[in-house]
């Protein structure tokens, strides 16, 4: 789908605040209410806007430990990959899972309350994931940037 300047501006505004009213959104992007509403509905039906969410503050929820884990698998056949990926879905502390290029197969992001909780998760679940050969954990010391906004270019 080709996006014009209005579509891009709608996306920029909604990324910052998905609770903005349609009246305010249309005013900010320079469209009347109905054309703006139609564009939002089209962006949703085309899958560009996947969903609207509420972002939580992990530190205020006592979930201040972020761990990045590189995973290397023993086997790389389709069944092993699918089994690993399905199993990761069942671990709520794993908030992201990416396949990667290079020596490592996956990169996981885990969010937990403490290092002790991570150690328990590691021993009880992560090392038991299907086909895992090696896990390499790195603890984030400080989050320098945190954005959910994609870099939408101007037309």
3D architecture notes:
- It holds the Pfam family HTH_24.
- Residues 3-64 form the HTH asnC-type domain.
- Helix content is 35%, strand content 19%.
- By secondary structure, it is an alpha+beta fold.
- The protein has two domains: 5-45, Orthogonal Bundle (Arc Repressor Mutant, subunit A); 65-139, 2-Layer Sandwich (Alpha-Beta Plaits), CATH 3.30.70.
- The chain has a four-stranded antiparallel sheet with strand order 2-3-1-4.
- A hairpin with a 6-residue loop joins strand 2 and strand 3 (106-112).
Please tally the helical runs, counting DSSP H or I stretches of 4 or more residues: 5
Number of domains: 2
**CATH third-tier fold name of the largest domain:** Alpha-Beta Plaits
Biggest sheet: strands side by side, in what order? 2-3-1-4
Summarize model confidence as the mean pLDDT.
95
Helix percentage range = 25-40%
The biggest beta sheet is recorded as: 4 strands, antiparallel
Give helix and strand order, one letter per element, not per position: HHHEHEEHE
**Cα distance spanning the termini:** 14 Å
> What is the annotated CATH architecture of the largest domain?
2-Layer Sandwich
Radius of gyration of CA atoms, rounded to a whole number? 20 Å
Strand tally is 4
Approximate strand percentage: 15-25%
CATH superfamily of the largest domain: Lrp/AsnC effector binding domain/regulation of amino acid metabolism (RAM) domain
CATH class descriptor name of the largest domain: Alpha Beta
Low-pLDDT sequence parts? none
**What is the structural class?**
alpha+beta
Overall body shape:
elongated
